[in-house]
Amino acid sequence: MTEKDRPWVMRTYAGHSTAEASNALYRGNLAKGQTGLSVAFDLPTQTGYDPESPLARGEVGKVGVPVPHLGEMRKLFRDIPLVEMNTSMTINAPAMWLLALYQVVAEEQNPDLTPEEVAAQLAGTTQNDIIKEYLSRGTYVFPPEHSLRLISDLIAYTVHQIPKWNPINICSYHLQEAGATPTQELAYALCTAIAVLDEVKSSGQVDDADFEKVVGRISFFVNAGVRLVEEMCKMRAFVELWDEITRERYGVEDAKMRRFRYGVQVNSLGLTEAQPENNVQRIVLEMLGVTLSKHARARAVQLPAWNEALGLPRPWDQQWSLRMQQVLAYESDLLEYDDIFDGSHVVEAKVAELVASAKDEIDRVQAMGGAIAAVESGYMKEALVSSHAARRARIESGEEVIVGVNRFETTEPSPLTADLDTAIQTADPEAERAAIASVEAWRAQRDAGEVEKALQQLAEDARSDTNLMTATLAAARAGATTGEWAGTLREVFGEFRAPTGVSGAVGVARSAGQAGEQLAAVRKRVKETGDELGGRLRLLVGKPGLDGHSNGAEQIAVRARDAGFEVIYQGIRLTPEQIVSAAVAEDVQCVGLSILSGSHMQLVPAVLDGLREQGMDVPVVVGGIIPDSDARKLLEAGVAAVYTPKDFGLTEIMGGIVDVIRRANGLS
Length: 668
What we know:
globular, 25 helices, 5-stranded parallel β-sheet, alpha/beta, single chain
């Protein structure tokens, strides 16, 4: 019998509410055959805030697990032996801090071993790609140069101390979610990798003899869309380009160290709220794109669940996605063969096309000064917003078919969504209170003097060239909190607001055909309504809370501009008070709020109350992943309209906004 290849690491991306609940979920998933863990942290943890921070309001435990201190990390991995586990942690700006907590818990689990012996056994990944956060996900904290320093320090530390750890996932996943074409996904991810490797090299923390080890520990986190052939060819193009860059730019001679190592979370952008059962076959096709080609096969795969466009998946939904992987790996004959695409003229031609176009874009970015310069100038962000706008236009015109959304919309009632309120899991409403109580109890029992001493050393090291991991480990052991660690570095490094990419993005104002006629009709109504009210209509697009998923807000802003609105969009991570102040200062006719983190029931009422306190009677519309029951409550609270992923027609949404403005102003 043919000897089969070993399957990839199988994960599900999970974590919610509390460390205890997430621990139970992890142990349950491992019992079902999952072979690695993938930890989702909540937004306060991802952005370096403790749960009692005003900015954390409504966000604690929503999109992941809160880990504000070492005690919660202990609970998260209770009865899970970390020296035997392969753990992926989706964390970026505070990656160094979370790895320190993880390492200390592993040391506590193994008191008979030295810290060095424990570190040598740890295996896993910290995402740690902060550059892509400025372009897509939005959980950056510090300015680019300081973020790159944190990345470099962590890489140097792990290469010397935790040799089996992948200190960074260069993430093209989020670029595709932000609208990247395959060419942009290849080019911008590889430009990020070049920036990171150049920084490590120039830091002097790794000598030439060990630099190959740095290259060998760089991993990637990649997206796979439903265009099966193109996505598989993209992966082969990644393999070819990475081998060339590491050989020619960095002189890596060992072919094993040049290997393109990547994990995958397949595309969530294409999952639909309408007919969500279709998401199952989409996920399977996307999984095939990263597993069929042996020479470009993922090392680890995590699949979303069919209902992620509706809300938080339940354990059963995650089990379904795990079983998809297991059927492919253990029932099919895929792992018995060499690469089944070798020699295909079609594949070779497509790969060559992608490689050539990616090289051109890499050269363009490098000529600007590299990835950091292309972030700071807004070039890459504008390119992604424009690509996303073009995709949305293709969907609305019907050129790009989305089954169940813009074609084949007739459907039988689905038993999966017969009761929408139970088709998803609800985060524990007491999670925020429990997390705040946990931090208060933690601070009460620790040695405050030791914490202060450790944080002072962290600040001192941050002002020098000292690797920050030593001080970070000391702060973790002393009992510092996530917010204290990040706050100390904020005081030294400062903060940053990335370009939104909206002002320079190319929209669809010149669309032809029916879509263009529809937009022209809305533009006419926008102008007429503005004339009746005495000026151009002004729309404020706001992103309250810590949710950095700005793609939807950006597309609304671009389409509103194309429709003739004057658009005020100040980017992500605003408090309700800041949004209210902007609405008053700009004297807008409508406020649009975009929230994808599940915190709408806390943040939207805060904006409504703030507007009322200011005597500003303007309609508020809300968009996001909002269950029907919550949408009804928001409408009862005074929201004028609620839009969810099933409302894919941006021009129709613009028409709806004109309607609510006219109603609010007593116009026919």
